[in-house]
């Protein structure tokens, strides 16, 4: 039977790889993007949302609900990063990073739950937080640590559904253009991350997936 996936952050490096792989496997896809910019290849349904804005998120989910009956695989691959020491970081920058990585995940889940299948699988893109506690990354590291706790609690609340927190090491995407570090040698390709996420989905697991 045809299954439906919803991907948040579908224009990002990992999001794009996920959508391509899902399309290859003949999923119905709802792609949620920050800015559309003519990305027709992102799946049949492309919807704009700013995860920092609860109304925008709710409107996107309402539109998704007009296009599909139910979502089987739900993936939050939106995120943002900045490198600024705490003493230099503005409140607006702190809020932007927390919002894209953590509060946006809450907003997207909160709005999406009524659309999810009873046995839906929710996947969040975290990071190996132990490696993130570096000068300049207070907001990003805090957000990803918070996301781990959020996913743990959600898993206990939504017992009939699956919740997976993916913790990739470095992935070669445009995210790295936002920080003054080079992509480390041996960084994962986004396509590999997408493939491992879809394999984990097929295997039926729940919990953490370290890549
Ligand atoms: N790349 C890595 O090394 C790495 C490692 C571990 C974990 N991760 C995590 O994996 C996820 C995907 O990362 P990526 O590497 O694919 O990064 P990316 O290419 O920068 O993609 C992130 C996506 O999130 C979207 N986004 C940001 N703020 C948003 C907002 N307020 N509302 C809606 N969408 C928003 C961006 O859209 P716009 O660009 O249009 O704003 C972008 O499409 C992130 O959570 C990241 O933290 C990445």
Number of helices: 5
Which CATH architecture would you pick? 3-Layer(aba) Sandwich
Gyration radius, in Å: 16 Å
The CATH superfamily appears as: NAD(P)-binding Rossmann-like Domain
Number of strands: 7
- Gross morphology: globular
Low-confidence stretches: none
User: How would a crystallographer describe the biggest sheet?
Assistant: 7 strands, parallel
Oligomer: single chain
Structural class from helices and strands? alpha/beta
As a percent range, the share of helical residues equals 25-40%
Bound molecules: NADP nicotinamide-adenine-dinucleotide phosphate
Indicate the CATH topology: Rossmann fold
Order of helices and strands: EHEEHEHEHEHE
Top-tier CATH class: Alpha Beta
Strand order of the largest sheet: 3-2-1-4-5-6-7
Any descriptors?
single chain; 211 residues; alpha/beta; Rossmann fold; seven-stranded parallel β-sheet; 19% strand; binds NADP nicotinamide-adenine-dinucleotide phosphate
Care to describe what's here?
The chain is of the alpha/beta class. The protein has one domain: Rossmann fold (3-Layer(aba) Sandwich), CATH 3.40.50.720. About 40% of the residues lie in helices and about 20% in strands. The protein is built from five helices and seven strands; from the N terminus they run βαββαβαβαβαβ. A seven-stranded parallel β-sheet has the order 3-2-1-4-5-6-7, sandwiched between helices. The structure holds NADP nicotinamide-adenine-dinucleotide phosphate.
């Amino acid at each position: 039977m045809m299954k439906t996936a919803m991907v948040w952050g579908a224009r990002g490096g990992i999001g794009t790889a996920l959508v391509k792989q899902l399309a290859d496997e003949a999923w119905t896809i709802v792609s949620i993007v920050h800015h559309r910019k003519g990305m027709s290849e992102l799946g049949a349904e492309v919807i704009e949302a700013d995860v920092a804005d609860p109304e925008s998120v709710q409107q996107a989910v309402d539109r998704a609900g007009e296009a599909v009956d139910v979502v089987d695989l739900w993936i939050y691959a939106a995120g943002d990063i900045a490198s600024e020491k705490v003493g230099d970081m503005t409140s607006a920058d702190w809020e932007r990073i927390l919002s894209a990585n953590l509060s946006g995940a809450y907003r997207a889940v909160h709005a999406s739950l009524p659309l999810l299948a009873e046995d839906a699988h929710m996947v969040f893109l975290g990071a190996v937080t132990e490696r993130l506690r570096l000068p300049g990354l207070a907001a990003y590291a805090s957000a990803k640590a918070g996301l781990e706790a959020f996913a743990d609690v959600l898993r206990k609340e939504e017992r009939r559904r699956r919740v997976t927190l993916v913790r990739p090491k470095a992935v070669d995407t445009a995210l790295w253009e936002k920080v003054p570090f080079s992509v480390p040698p041996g960084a994962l390709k986004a396509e590999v991350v997408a493939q491992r996420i879809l394999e984990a989905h097929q295997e039926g697991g729940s919990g953490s997936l370290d890549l």
